[in-house]
Amino acid sequence: MKYMLKYSLLLLVLVLALSSCREEPSYSDIPSITFDRVEQYTTTKNRVTFDSLVVVVDYQDGDGDLGLSRGEGGSQSGPDFEPPFEPGSPFYDNFIVNMQVKRGNTYEPRPINFNGRFPRLSRDDKPEALEGEIRYTITSFTTESYPFRDTVRFEVYIYDRALNQSNIVYTDDIILYQGQ
Predict the structure, then answer these.
(1) Could you tell me if residue 123 is inside a domain?
(2) Does residue 31 lie within any of the structural domains?
(3) Cα separation of 84 and 67, whole Å?
(4) With CB atoms counted within 10 Å of each terminal CB, which end of the chain scores lower, N or C?
(5) Separation of alpha carbons 171 and 161, rounded Å
(6) Greatest CA span in the chain, whole angstroms?
């Protein structure tokens, strides 16, 4: 019993020592994203076909200032709705999605954007390296608005709260209304 206690204590000290050696990753304070995938969900109701697309990007950020809060009780008040994040500002949305339609071998930009906000990814304003995945849903596709089997892709980038723009990524081609 005496040896078990001695070795248990030694094992605990060893585990604590090794876990404290973990180095924080070193990322740039300018956010970086990579395209991961698009999840496509197609449904039909009253002879109209709908597509919901979930654009998934992976992110890294050195200071953790990603995302904007939603305001209390759904209101548009609080620091993430004040300049430069107020409605109508170019920085109101922090997830920028521009659609391009494939015609032949070229992509034509469409004047429609699917921009929006994603919530704060850290609980406090303490600078810390963050990495993870952002899932952004677009539900605006119907056969009444976009032709069946049209091929599109999206240009995507994000902003952090310091107004740093990430790199731009492009999704794979998406053939509308071909999802599960």
Answers:
(1) yes
(2) yes
(3) 14
(4) N
(5) 24
(6) 78
CA angle, 174 then 178 then 180, to 5°: 115
Pair of tokens at residue 116? 């929006």
> Is 3 part of a structural domain of the chain?
no
Q: What is the CATH number of the domain that holds 85?
A: 2.60.40
Which H helix or E strand runs over 3? Answer: helix 2-19
CA distance 156 to 97: 5
Count structural domains, the chain.
1
The pTM (predicted TM-score) of the whole model is 0.84
Specify if 108 maps to a domain. Answer: yes
pLDDT in tens, 14-73: 565 555 555 677 899 999 999 999 999 999 999 888 999 999 999 999 999 999 998 777
Burial 93-106 (b: 16+ CB within 10 A, else e): bbbbbbbbbeeeee
Distance CA 120, CA 13 (A): 36
How many C-beta atoms lie closer than 10 Å to residue 151's C-beta? Answer: 15
